[in-house]
Design goal:
The protein has eleven helices and 14 strands. The chain is of the alpha+beta class. Strands 1-2-5-6 form a four-stranded antiparallel β-sheet. A four-stranded antiparallel β-sheet has the order 9-8-10-11. Strand 8 and strand 9 form a beta hairpin.
Amino acid sequence: MISFETGAMIALLVMISILLFTHRRKITFSRFFIFYAAMYRTKRGLSTMDRLAKKYQRMWELLSVPIIVVGFLGMALVVEELIRNLILLFIAQAPPGVGVVLPIQAKGVFYVPFFYWIISIFAILIIHEGMHGVMARVYNLPVKSSGLVVIGALIPLIPGAFVEPDERKLALASKKEQLAVYAAGPVSNIVTGILIALIVGFVVAPWTSTFYANDGPVITRLSGPDAPAAKAGLLEGDKIIAVNGEAVHNAAEFSTRLKDTKAGDVAIIRTAQNSYPVTLEEIDGRAKIGVYVETSLQNNSWWVYVVLWLEGLLGILGILSIGVGLFNLVPLGPIDGGRMLLTGLQHVTHHKHAHLIWRSVSFVLVVVLITQLIAAFV
């Protein structure tokens, strides 16, 4: 049976396909083999960007240099991480540091529930593209259009948004102004993600932690009839109160107690009824007993579930904001980081060999990214 979220994902793709067909005369298509980008241009949001730019112009001008600095620091960080992860992938068979974020559970995919995914994607894109537009207007650079974009391969896959500055006038602007426009989008995502993480960590999480009973996590599901826990006699609904003689109050503590174990180790799982010796086995590359647990709630009121759902949304939004911001700082081709690198090289080298260095760096990073993506799926 198709889950509700899978059905929602299919419905979204069908709806996008219908919209692409019915509005095809107003849409610009860019194709590369089976891949394509469909762009629907509008003027929506441009007046808001202009208003924010003019009202807080002095603030944006003061922040432009810190934004550029953070952009280049983020670029250095993400390049260092990509190269380090590639080295560890070959030397220590470590998991790849690159994956695709989708509302689909599959190997190589960072799974995010559909509604978390679609809300987060649009929130991130609105902030990202909006800040490109705001910074362009701060320096009186025209913004020609905003709009929606769909990336697809035969069928539409990933919805998005864009803001389109006047590229000719942007190219004539000073290097500082260009860099500020390019860096504004990804840096705004990173700052948003950090702020959300602080709010969740210091305000929301301490409050929601009081919702839980903390008298032991409950087994909600066994990974299968042949799972180590199932063979030992554990059942769904059992409440775990200790592991190897150490008390366990919640799901996080349960994971911590088993963190340093390896396949073949025996864990003594104490429930409210009995004790069970469970021999850990390697499951998905890690030593596990094969159970899914969660901490039970003290209050089952509807508003508790609403608050917890919103907490989960904020957590995903924060993580994805930082991830999207850092990825856009990769000095690769036409994305923000690539444009920043080219602009910086043109300034430093006075345009001599700037394009050659830029293309070389882009090629190397394409190889690094594709290698890790293939490793993630294979």
